[in-house]
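Side project, low priority. Logging it here so it doesn't get lost.
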Amino acid sequence: MDLAVAEGESVAIVGASGSGKTTLLGLLAGLDLPSAGSIALAGQRLETLDEEARAALRAREVGFVFQGFHLLPSLTAEENVALPLELAGREDPARVREALEAVGLGARRRHYPRQLSGGEQQRVALARAFVGRPRILFADEPTGNLDQATGRQVSALLFELNRRHGTTLVLVTHDPALARQCRRVFRLDGGRLHAQERDPA
């Protein structure tokens, strides 16, 4: 089926382990190219762009949140959040501090990942994803490594930032409660996407 995600919309992709959810997310973000079909990201057809152009498009338009946090252990929280801006040649210390304040970690900005809890590390990852004010945010199991209570806190923050910045959100999750917070939910099964009704419970 075709999948079109409108600007500012939130979409969840669910499915069994090994069904290809993370692979699909990589295709949508232009990390990989499809063997057939076409993918447009922020108005650009990805299959017409070379790897360098796709990377530049991601740097301008895309933020990522991963299950495993992917923080650099040798950098402080502040330095981890600043990294996307620095790589894009847009250093902005004030925006970095603002992003950390938004996730409640302004006072811990000089702490290293090993000095932070799992929930705090994921909040740093959220700040890093949003600091460049991307048009599109891809999240791969953003609460998968967290306990239930911390997962709820992080998911609430994810959607709060999504609404505040009007960012398009596409997330992969095993968590039905997280999926229900999205405007639309799709199940990936047998290599095909199926729209499904959200469970109101």
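Brief comment: The chain has a mean pLDDT of 89.
Revisit when time allows.
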